[in-house]
From TrEMBL:
Biological processes per GO annotation: one-carbon metabolic process
Database matches in SUPFAM superfamilies: MurD-like peptide ligases, catalytic domain, MurD-like peptide ligases, peptide-binding domain
Coiled-coil segments: none
Name this polypeptide is given: tetrahydrofolate synthase
Keyword vocabulary terms for this entry: ATP-binding, Ligase, Magnesium, Metal-binding, Nucleotide-binding, One-carbon metabolism
Amino acid sequence: MGGSYEDAIALLDTRRRVRRPSGALAKDAARDAGLKPEFRVGGEALRGKPGIVGMSGWMEELGHSPADVAALNIIHVAGTKGKGSTCAYIEALLLAHGAATGWPRSVGMYTSPHLLVPQERVRISGTAIDERGFAKYFFEVWERLFDGDTATESQKGERPRYLQLCVLVALHAFIKEGVGAVVLETHHGGEYDATNFVEKPVVTVVTPLGRDHVKQLGPGMKDIAWHKAGILKSGAVAISSAQEEGLEEVLRARAEERGVFGGDVKVVTGTEEPGVQGVKPDVQMGNCAVAVVAVRAFLERMRGEVLSEESVRRGVEGFKWPGRFQVVERGGGRERWWCDGAHNEMSIGVAGRWFVDGLEEGDRARVLVFSQISDSRDTEAVFRCLAESLKGSGVQLVIFTTYDPDQTFSASMSLDQQVATTTLPSLDVYERVWKELHPNAEVRFELQLAEALNLAKRIGEPGAGVDVLVTGSLHLVAGTLWWLGEGVGGAR
């Protein structure tokens, strides 16, 4: 039967969870799902049914066996900071090696969240599948799981939710397209993540860990590390970025428990990998180094091949990851928009320093546009970290705004007509923190994102120009890039 792209997006949106469950997972439900409800992470019981529940069964309903999933040759990536960038570097390196040697001819990549439109989550050989392709694969999944004989009315309550459905559509597409390798990013966890039903990845990667999503994974860093290390699997190579003290021991314990290839986690402590030096900013150099090690291990395990320095160079050149350390110039360089979807304490300080280090001497105006609406992180601590990192930046104006976290962008949409669906959060706290650290800067509040961006733009008129840092949420950055006319293209 099928349907249009707009129909697919509308149906996908119906599977969003209105709110996170607050009740502890019932013991019988946990037992049926193969989970252990008596296990406590950070003293907390499991709440609601984790994303991993049901995934294997739904894949089999789609006609895909565990062997079909294993044949995708998966590199599974979890972490707190740099997950998406590391995935994009892995993708670029695999494509460069494939161009040089003939394998892999194509690479699938699933990432989350998307920046502008849901199909960005599903990339094939560096490009998001188009609207027609997304609709095709979406309806093949939807009609089998929701409209087919196996999905009776009584079962529909146990059908996939939004993120589960996104993963199912992506893996279904990769199998149908016959990709040679897949880069698979977790959502925000690991152990119970919807992606973690994958039984036999070739390589698993844990990027730097930080205090994020503490209500689901915390409260302690070791609790978070335990969850993220849940992707480690028997027989798979385990690779990790360097971690803060005490966390590598958690990863190593889980690696031993799972029986990873070689019996231990390979920790990438430096950026000495050939071809990595020169990648900017420095944090991306670290992500790139981890990706090089991961791809090298992957090729050795799969085919006994070596990743050449030339393929590393070409991979670095081919890297693309919009919304992270992205500078968009307008008006012949008069406007520079520094966009980074940093949203936790680890990442947002790096974003601030990246902005400061990139500024040039002169009379250009300097503006910060910030917003973060979240109940899963300490937004005051995040903003304080950003304000600290911007000391000495000369920011003259900070604009607090909002965004629609469920916005679906389309060609007919204008951000100027966007109606805010949320209220500006904790503005008194944000203003107090900013004035404490930047007493001479002006503070403004704009409910509509388009108005905030227009205000930032006007600051540079008719003077020497303006540098605007937009950060605090990926949703905020997405709206900004759309307003700037940056479409999907080959992006996320």
